[in-house]
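*** Query protein ***
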Amino acid sequence: MQMVRNFKSAKIQLTLTNSDHPKGVKHPFNNVSESVTNDQVARFSAAIEMLTAEKCLDADIIVTNQVSMNK
């Protein structure tokens, strides 16, 4: 059996914190490119910080692949 893995989707999930949520709240952003760079993630999180006045604790890049099983 041969398995073929294909990119399906990706999203960035930022953990943002403020005085109401000191441990942070996760916010997902869909439709991220498969080849997103660290610099792009850093710039995106900085833009979200400016728009929300919250602080970004971390970012998760979540990639979904589809695996086809050829028999």
About this structure: The helical segments are 38-52. The chain has a mean pLDDT of 94. The radius of gyration is 16 Å. The chain is about 20% helix and 50% strand.
